[in-house]
Every structure is written in C-alpha cells, then in structure tokens.
Design a protein that fits this description.
The protein is mainly beta. The protein contains five helices and 36 strands. The strands form eight sheets. Strands 9, 10, 12, 14, 15, 16 and 18 form a seven-stranded mixed sheet that branches. Strands 24-21-29-34-31-32 form a six-stranded mixed sheet, with no helix packed on it. A hairpin with a 7-residue loop joins strand 19 and strand 20. The N terminus is likely disordered. Belongs to the multicopper oxidase family.
C-alpha cells in the first residue's frame, strides 16, 4: 500500500512538473448528445440531427492553441462521426473524424475527441461525415479568437455572429442516400437556409452606429451561394484563418465548404433590413432571407431584395482574384503573415487532379484522375499504423490525369513530410467544383478558364494570394495552389459537393515521415475506436 501511494505521488508530481515546464495551453470541455428530432426548416416536418437538442449545433468558441475535449454521445440508431472543416489537427490526423481516419461511433456509445487548434485563428465549422448525415443537420460553427497579446487588424466588434448558410432538401437523408446508392444523380435542392431557418426565420439584432462581425459558412451539400445585406456594405477581414486585405463588397460569393468573416456597420436609418442568400449557377435561382434588426427600429423589412449575381462566372472569378492576404497583419502568431514568402519556394512536385463523372458498372460515380474512391471497413489510418495489408496501397492514384476508363479503388497518394508542392485542380466539366484539403492550408496562386499549361504559371500571384483550405474551380477551368506538406498524417482531399464526395470524388494523401517520432506525429490515442481488421488489437498502454 505504501509503495502504491509513493508511486501515485511520483506520477502526480511528474504530471505537475511537465504541465508547469511545458506551459500547457488551456482546456475547454464539451459534452454533446447527438439525437434525431423533428425539424421544420422549409415548413415541412423532417427528421433532423440535433446536438444537445439544437439545430444547427452549438458554436465552439475558443482561442488559438486551446485544447478542445469534446465527448460525443451517439444516440442515433446508426454509426456517426463528426469532422472539423478547416481545423488542421497538427500531428494528429487521428482526430480528423472521417471514414479513412476513424472508426464510427456505434449507436448508444460515445467517443471523446481531443483536438488542439494549434496556431490557428478564424472561422470554420464542424459537420457529420458519414452516410449523408450532413443532409440532416449536425453541423455547427467554430470561432477561433486570437490570443490577447496578438494584434488583430481591426477594432473589437460590438458583436460576433455565425451564419451557417447553404442548400437544403425536403427529403430525409436516408432517401437521398438511397438515391446515390442506386447510382442515380442527386436531385436539385428545394431551398436555402440561414442558421437552419427559411424566409425571415432568423434575426440578427444590432445597435445603430456599431460594427459587427459576421462569420458566414456555406455548410450546404451542392450549391454555391451569394450573400448580401440590403443597404449595407461588407468589409472582408478573414477567410478560413487568414486575415485579408480589407476590401469592401456589396455581395459575396461563398462556395460549398468555404467560410468568410466580414465587418458590417449599422450605419443606416433605424429599420429592419434583408440579409439575402441566393444560389449561384442554378436554374431556377433559389433565394432565402434573414433579418438585420436595428434595436431601435419600429419598422419591419420592406422593399425589393438587393441585386445579386446568378450565373455570371466572370463576376465570381474577378471577385475571387480580389481576395488578398494582409501581409502586415499578424495571424495566430505575432509575426506578420507576409513574413512567410511562399512565392520564393520552388515546388518539388506538381500534382494535377482532374474530376470527372463516369458511369461505372451502370451506376453514376465521380472520380479523380480516373479513380473513384471506395471506402473500407478498416480506416486507412489504422491499417497504416497496425501494418494491415490488403486495405490500400500507396500510389494507387496518379499524380496527373491519364487516359482510359474510370474504375473503383481505395485511392491513396504518397507524399513526403516537409515537401512543398504545386497542385492544379482541372475541371473539364460544366459545373463549379469546390475542393478541400484536410490538415493543411494552401495558397491559391492562380485560377483561370481553359486548359492549364506550364505557361499558366506566368500569371500566378506569388506575393499576396490568400491562404485557405477550400477553393473553387470554375467550369472548364483550373485552379492552382501551393502547399507546404508540414503535417504528418492521412489527410482527405475531397470534393465539398457532398454527393460527389459520397460517390468517389475524393482520395487520401499520406504525408509520411520515416522518423517515427512524437515530434512529427502523435501516437495513436488510447481511446481510439478499433473496427474492421483492426478490431481486437490494442492502442497503447499510456
């Protein structure tokens, strides 16, 4: 007994010493209960996914480097996972929450995510990643504040609001999933939502003369949107963790999976104003509204909705090119963002990715460089860790488009840790694409119509393009990015069009370090769920 007490005392003392010496960052704890519940977003009763009874789910508010301990209790009747759009999980793809990295949380069970928002600021969101659950809700906003001593390039706003926008379907997610499983194309959406509500269903209250921050994310399934506010201008200040040049816009395109922060000053006469979201590149054009309510207003919304673009690609492309990095502003660290001279680094490798919509075995699929991704019952990250053969092979997707028919494959591309790469997304189709890369941010150095060639590099912005994690590719066009592979792990590269992602327009990038060191990657979590061919194995004792 005495030896046990001494051992416990030593362990506790060691814990206190490590915590003190390391200056450990703060912890924030969340307990979430995930359930089905009745929702009426478009006036029709549906079965939605609620988090702690809320639709959308609760907003996560935290500060750079905070540790987030999120205990998720799955009270659905089917497996469930949450993923964190834009959170980089430094050295920790174990927490990414996708089928390639994590086993699903079984019905009636819980799993605790241990995340750190290391060296990040800005606006992001979380969402359910399996089984078309995203079509039922389960999403919410993430706001990462700068640390108190880090300068922010604008005065503190009087208030901070998250607006989760996007398309919505009146059919339940099980019906939409069945459509895709039968190999059919996805139907058109029935409407648009702002924070889970339809026409004028949501209100933001402001005081006249004050300035507010709006964090706007497109959490929809398939549709680009345009956001605008009747009678007001928007000053763009942040995009997915990057402070931007503070350009002013009257309307802002936001593609699927993207997030923007704008400042809006309540500088108009005291009344209520429309906040408008409309669909882009769709026929018919869908529209919904929320209300910007002045606290001293006695007059409701009135008048015509402000103009917004519909199918104008050149307008959207011009706006995208106008979004620039604020070189003198601090990011999550005190040094200016522009101190990282990405344009002076020569890429060691060029990867060209072409999306397509093939028919395979008589069924609609979507592919990248001819390969339509097929998920496995054993997460790739676990197969890699336990060295389980027959799950995937590195190099099962090409670095560039090749001829021939499309095929099904669990596609994984290999890459070296600390490499610097150029990735070109090539879209030969007639619809806008939206691409996301987990675990990283990247510099959108160029985008244009037509075929990408080596000569296209002459038009790259190598000085002040924005760094972000989700980018659009216009029809019959290309988008080029530069990216530092500074995060070891198994990382998903995917279409943010959720039907295309579900039917194969995705793959995994295995960023590998031979060092096998905690310096490069954290060990498998002790509480990691094990499934498939990893079931029955052991994580680690400590």
């Amino acid at each position: 007994m005495r030896q046990t007490k001494i051992l416990c005392s030593l362990v506790f003392s060691l814990f206190l010493f490590v915590t003190f010496v390391s200056g450990e960052d703060p912890y924030r704890f969340f307990t979430w209960k995930v359930t089905f519940g009745d929702i009426y977003p478009l006036g029709v009763k549906q079965r939605g996914i609620l988090i702690n009874g809320q639709f959308p789910g609760p907003r996560i508010e935290c500060v750079t480097n905070d540790n987030l301990i999120i205990s998720v209790h799955n009270e659905l009747n089917e497996p469930f996972l949450l993923s964190w759009n834009g959170i980089q999980h430094r050295r920790n793809s174990w927490q990414d929450g996708l089928s390639g990295t994590n086993c699903p949380i079984p019905p009636g069970k819980n799993f605790t995510y241990v995340l750190q928002v290391k060296d990040q600021i800005g606006s992001f969101f979380y969402f359910p990643s399996l089984a078309m659950h995203k079509a039922a809700g389960g999403f919410g906003g993430i706001a990462i504040w700068s640390r108190p001593r880090i300068p922010v390039p604008f005065p503190p706003p009087a208030g901070d609001f998250t607006l989760l926008t996007g398309d919505w379907f009146k059919r339940n997610h099980t019906y939409l999933r069945a459509i895709l499983n039968r190999g059919h194309k996805f139907p058109a959406p029935d409407g648009l939502l702002i924070n889970g509500r339809g026409w004028n269903g949501y209100t933001v209250t402001v005081d006249q003369g004050k300035t507010y921050r709006l964090r706007i994310s497109n959490v929809g399934l398939t549709t680009s949107i345009n956001f605008r506010i009747q009678g007001h201008k928007m000053k763009l200040v942040e995009v997915e963790g990057s402070h931007t040049l503070q350009n002013t816009y009257t309307a802002l395109d936001i593609h699927v999976g993207q997030s923007y922060s704008v400042l809006v000053t309540a500088d108009q006469p005291a009344m209520d104003y429309y906040m408008v979201v409309s669909s882009r590149f769709t026929k018919p054009v869908l529209t919904t509204t929320a209300v910007l309510h002045y606290s001293n207003s006695f007059k409701g919304v009135s008048g015509a909705l402000p103009w917004g673009p519909t199918d104008q690609i050149a307008w959207s492309l011009s706006q995208a090119r106008s979004i620039r990095w604020n070189l003198t502003a601090s990011g999550p660290r005190p040094n200016p963002q522009g101190s990282y001279h990405y344009g002076l680094i020569k890429p060691a490798r060029t990867i060209r990715l072409a999306n397509s919509a093939p028919i395979i075995n008589g069924m609609q699929r979507y592919a990248v460089n001819r390969v339509s991704y097929v998920p496995t019952s054993t997460p790739l990250k676990l197969a890699d860790y336990f060295k389980i053969g027959g799950i995937f092979s590195v190099g099962s997707i090409s670095d560039y488009p090749i001829g021939g028919g499309a095929y099904l494959q669990t596609s994984v591309m290999g890459a070296d840790f600390r490499s610097f790469v150029e990735i070109v997304f090539e879209n030969f189709e007639t619809t806008v694409q939206s691409w996301h890369i987990d675990g990283h941010s990247f510099f959108v150095v160029g985008m244009d119509g037509g075929q990408w060639t080596l000569a296209s590099r002459k038009g790259y912005n190598l000085r002040d393009t924005v760094s972000r994690c989700t980018t659009q590719v216009y029809p019959k066009s290309w988008t080029a990015i530069y990216m530092a592979l500074d995060n070891v792990g198994m990382w998903n590269i995917r279409s943010e069009d959720w039907a295309r992602q579900y039917l194969g327009q995705q793959f995994y990038l295995r960023v590998f370090s031979p060092a096998n060191s905690w310096r490069d990657e954290y060990p498998i979590p002790k509480n990691a769920l094990l499934c498939g061919k990893a079931a029955g194995r052991h994580t680690r004792p400590l």
